[in-house]
Design goal:
Blueprint lengths: L4 E2 L5 E2 L3 E2 L6 E2 L9 H9 L7 E5 L5 H9 L4 E6 L2 H13 L6 E5 L5 H4 L5 E6 L15 H7 L6 H11 E11 L4 H10 L2 E10 L6 E10 L6 E2 L3 E2 L9 H6 L3
Parallel strand pairs: 5-6, 5-8, 6-7, 8-9, 10-12, 10-13
Antiparallel strand pairs: 1-2, 3-4, 9-11, 10-11
Helix pairs in contact: 1-2, 6-7
Length: 249
């Protein structure tokens, strides 16, 4: 994303960039770089029947924006604890004239019960911090460290909030690291978020997965479907056709 330039009055003026030709315009929030994981998750999320969704820890609002672009029926709420990031997410909605279908709430995922009514949503999405406390060196910036590691919101906190916000039968979709998949499934099941779909993301065919895309169902029956891998490159090292579709190339 481009830099921020001052206008004639000395105020910050955001440089927005179209995500694809004719697509939504987006300005990146500090500490929340636009990553492939959010883009792939937005494509993975099933939107059939979804009318009220929430993005837990929305950062600059990229997931919210991409999902609103996919469905005119959908209304999205973004929940973000950092005021600067929440303001940027609201700015991104405003830039795309999506304020009637999207809103941003500045608040803590752990306080979801005081911010929303139980069962308020039929879709919950999240691109949470991947690394548990004590798992390694994190960035020095407290904000960036919180975005990458479970300092202010653990996997258990996330699943507890998702379960409270989901109506019965609602979907909970997230992206995470494959090495933590057993922890993700245990946390989801503890809150009656039954894992229903799993798709691994690999750099190329035959490579070990680098990401896991997961869909759970509130109060769903047992039974997990493992889909074929999403490969970012083909056998010749070129962008895969699926990645080009996702990125509108």
């Amino acid at each position: 994303m481009g830099p921020v330039f001052p206008d004639e009055r000395g105020n910050a003026m955001t440089d927005f960039t179209a995500l694809w030709p004719g697509g939504p315009r987006y300005a990146q929030a500090e500490h929340f770089p636009l990553g492939t994981d959010s883009v792939l998750l937005a494509d993975f999320v099933p939107l059939a029947g979804a009318e009220r969704g929430i993005d837990l820890g929305c950062g600059g609002g990229i997931l919210t924006l991409l999902l609103l672009a996919r469905s005119e029926r959908l209304r999205m709420t973004g929940l973000e604890i950092l005021p600067e990031a929440a303001a940027k997410a609201q700015e991104n909605l405003r830039e795309n004239a999506l304020e009637e279908r999207g809103r941003i709430v500045c608040g803590d995922i752990r306080e979801a019960r005081s911010l929303f009514d139980a069962g308020s949503f039929d879709l919950v999405v999240a691109n949470p911090p991947f690394f548990p406390p004590g798992s390694g060196a994190l960035p020095r910036s407290p904000e960036r460290a919180a975005a990458r590691g479970e300092l202010s919101c653990t996997l258990d906190d996330l699943c507890a909030a998702a379960a409270f916000l989901c109506r019965t039968g609602a979907r909970f979709c997230l992206v995470h690291r494959p090495e933590r998949l057993s922890e993700v499934f245990v946390a989801m099941s503890a809150y009656a978020l039954e894992p229903k779909r799993l798709r691994f993301v690999c750099a190329r065919p035959g490579a070990a997965p680098s990401l896991a895309l997961i869909e759970g169902r509130r109060g769903g029956r047992h039974g997990l479907t493992v889909e074929h891998d999403l490969c970012l490159e083909d056998e010749n090292g070129r962008e895969s056709e699926e990645l080009r579709r996702i990125y509108h190339r």
